[in-house]
Design brief:
It contains eleven helices and 34 strands. With 516 residues, it is α/β, with parallel strands linked by helices.
């Protein structure tokens, strides 16, 4: 069998101008083919090729600086981007805002599942996910600027029910990362923090007649890898580059407890530091129940995961993340998507199958804007393409969704720690608005599906009801009129006096101990 191994200097020339390139990653360098990305960027900067690329990625990729999607954010290099999450590449966000590229945002789960449909040469992905949101063609169709005109999704009727059909397109080149390759080209992911959609992307490129390129840390002899360790068979792989310096992530060299190869002893982490974010997380944590299947989104929902870990409660719930991971201690911040001592790792498209079928009991998600109809925007803020990642797939399908976010943004001055909350200065940016800039979560769709929806802030809690958004709880020390209603773009419904949030949420226990 002809060798599949090549030098990194040969790889970039395999990508023709105008190609559709599939990327994999999850923020923080998770399963990111960093060496391959850098080689493609170098060739473009040196030679001006490859250019006019269509770049496809389901999750966020990059470091807000130079790596990941940022490698492709050069004028002329990318013509079109179909991305699920954009915040790790400010340069690409600006190119979308200024109309230098055609910019689409599609839900991460949808993009991953679509790769399977492309691999099987089926007529696209048919799903309810996205109905009533910005990807619905009755709204924006996932288009993020005026130069983006081609329709990539359509509404269809089957048996009297409405669905969205996400249209297929060929993948010409897939740039992927594995752990170990044997001489035949079989790929193991054993040392990676997640499987995500690596197999689906490889299969989509193979079915499209494209080129599948892997980077791995190690090359081993034929018949060394056990069949259960091979996640991508040689039949799907064209080219392999060995990078002996490959890491698990930007800030992680190698930890077998994160790849799930071994368990590591770890004491419960210390209680999270008291903050406004912690106040929100403490209230959100109250919605948990034993045995619940749960998902945490990026941002303030991380803090809920931190509370669970610090209290040693991981075994009380089935913790999941869309990367395909179950259990363990979920890492936060730039390491969102990683888990230490996970109990199970499956492929992300299969995880999203479970989510889409209603497998989640509770989801904790962030919000950028909320309006009077209960709609939530996290995908486009101030004209900037943000992208929801797996937000749409998760929020539309969980039985209960707890949105977690600060009441306003930019410049608010708040004091707390003694069991009360005092607003000394309001934030400059309202987040409770009359109409959201873009609908990432549809309140009407949630009501039609009989989901339970809460919106938790540090000042108050809202609940979505058939007649609108109800104000149901208020923080001790907060004046409803001055601190809440006067700083909203609409009037919430109060069928009865809101109850007080528990004073425990607003206690800085370190401060209390110091003054005891």
């Amino acid at each position: 069998m002809k060798t599949k191994f090549a030098d990194i200097s040969q790889v970039a020339a395999l990508i023709p101008d105008g190609a559709t390139v599939g990327l994999i990653g999850g923020g923080g360098g998770l399963v990111e083919a960093s060496l391959l990305h850098a080689s493609v960027e170098k060739r473009f900067l040196d030679e001006g090729h490859p250019r006019d690329l269509t770049v496809v990625h389901a999750l966020g990729i990059g470091d807000r600086g130079e790596r990941g999607l940022n490698r492709f954010a050069h004028p002329g290099m990318a013509k079109r981007v179909i991305g699920g999450h954009w915040v790790w590449s400010p340069r690409m966000q600006e190119m979308a805002r200024s109309g230098q590229i055609e910019a689409y945002v599609m839900p991460s789960g949808v993009t991953m599942q679509l790769m399977r449909e492309i691999a099987a040469k089926r007529p696209g992905l048919i799903t309810h996910v996205g109905l009533g949101t910005f990807v619905d063609p009755r709204l924006d169709g996932g288009k993020m600027n005026s130069v983006t005109t081609e329709d990539l999704v359509e509404r269809i009727e089957i048996d009297g029910k409405t669905f969205l059909r996400y249209l297929p397109y060929p993948i010409d080149v897939a740039l992927l990362k594995g752990s170990i390759a044997d001489e035949d080209g079989n790929i193991s992911l054993d040392q990676e923090p997640a499987n995500v959609d690596i197999y689906a992307m490889a299969a989509a490129a193979r079915s499209s007649g494209g080129t599948v390129i892997f980077q791995v840390r190690e090359r081993v002899p034929r018949n060394t890898l056990g069949a259960r360790s091979v996640r991508i068979p040689s039949a799907l792989v064209d080219v392999i580059v060995v990078d002996p310096d490959q890491r698990q992530g930007y800030d992680l060299v190698y930890d077998p407890a994160i790849s799930g190869e071994r368990r590591a002893d770890e004491p419960p982490p210390p209680a999270p530091t008291f903050s406004v974010r912690q106040i929100i997380a403490r209230r959100a944590h109250e919605e948990l129940r034993d045995g619940a299947v749960i998902n945490y989104g990026f941002g303030i929902p991380d803090e809920v995961a931190s509370i669970v870990a610090s209290r040693g409660e991981q075994d009380r719930y089935y913790q999941t993340i869309e990367h395909g991971t179950y259990g363990g201690t979920l890492l936060t911040g730039t390491l969102f998507g990683y888990a230490r001592n996970p109990s199970c790792m499956i492929d992300s498209p299969a995880q999203f199958d479970f989510y889409s079928g209603g497998g989640l009991d509770i989801a904790f998600l962030g919000f950028g804007e909320v309006d009077a109809a209960g709609n939530v925007n996290v995908s486009k803020l101030g004209g900037l393409t943000v992208g929801p990642g797996g937000f749409v797939d998760i929020a539309q399908n969980a039985r209960k969704v707890v949105f977690c976010g600060t009441f306003d943004a930019k410049g608010a001055k708040i004091t707390s720690g003694d069991g009360r909350l005092q607003i000394e200065r309001q934030g400059e940016v309202r987040k409770l608005v009359n109409l959201v800039e873009q609908i990432t979560f549809s309140g009407a769709q949630a009501l039609s599906q009989e989901q339970a929806i809460l919106y938790v802030t540090e000042r108050c809690v809202f609940e979505l009801c058939p007649d609108g958004l109800h104000l149901i709880e208020i923080a001790p020390g907060v004046d409803i009129e001055r601190d809440v209603i006067e700083n909203m773009g609409f009037s919430p419904i109060m069928s009865e006096s809101p109850r007080l949030m528990k004073s425990d949420y607003f206690l800085d226990h370190a401060r209390t101990d110091a003054h005891a």
